[in-house]
Amino acid sequence: MEGHSGKLIFGKLGGKDIMAMQGRFHYYEGYDMKEVTFPERIMYELGIEILFVSNASGGMNPDFKIGDLMIIDDHINFFPEHPLHGKNFPTGPRFPDMHEAYDGQLRTLADKIAKEKGIRVVHGVYVGVQGPTFETPAEYRMYHRLGGDAVGMSTVPEVIVARHCGIKVFGMSIITDLGIEGQPVEVSHEEVQAAANKAQPLMTEIMSEIIKRS
């Protein structure tokens, strides 16, 4: 997986047992949705109660800057395949409610921690798309006008399955590039990864503190 080492790590953080995925399966790599979300099924069986998800995404909100940390308030699913399509798993209902896919208390706690530490955070709606191409200027405009603040190629399927399993979710996007209307900018994978690597320590600091306090 380009840009992802693909390791599974078990350990403790803040006195809590954790399972960490260093890298993930992506739909654009040719995996189907059952494979993409298989790790969340394993997490459920292992007793994981909270899923922390992060991603690199393109910002569409004109108030955003490259390197911003966006707390995900909600998402819009543009993937062509739904992770719950097919026979229902007994971990949740056939038609799961998604009115609060991203836990409100965890988002409030993240805001408090960021303020204490002087870390700039923004809030927004994440748009999940198939990829692997970066968005055209017209696509950026469309997603933003539909209510999106950031767009990326992951996260949404995993969150849907986690919520189906009753696992709480906290999500954060690193804004690695901008697709602001009227300001088209060429994007490369290397530039995205460089921006993500620079902002990652701040995101880790917030998430680590949430784990300690939750």
Automatic annotation (TrEMBL):
Keywords: Glycosyltransferase, Transferase. One of its GO terms (molecular function) is purine-nucleoside phosphorylase activity. GO terms for cellular component: cytoplasm. It holds the Pfam family PNP_UDP_1. The keyword NADP does not apply. InterPro entries: Nucleoside_phosphorylase_d (IPR000845), Nucleoside_phosphorylase_sf (IPR035994), Purine_phosphorylase (IPR011268). Its EC number is 2.4.2.1. GO terms for biological process: nucleoside metabolic process. It comes from the Bacteria. Pathway: Purine metabolism; purine nucleoside salvage. The keyword Translocase does not apply. Residues 3-212 form the Nucleoside phosphorylase domain. Belongs to the PNP/MTAP phosphorylase family. This is purine-nucleoside phosphorylase. It comes from Hoylesella buccalis ATCC 35310.
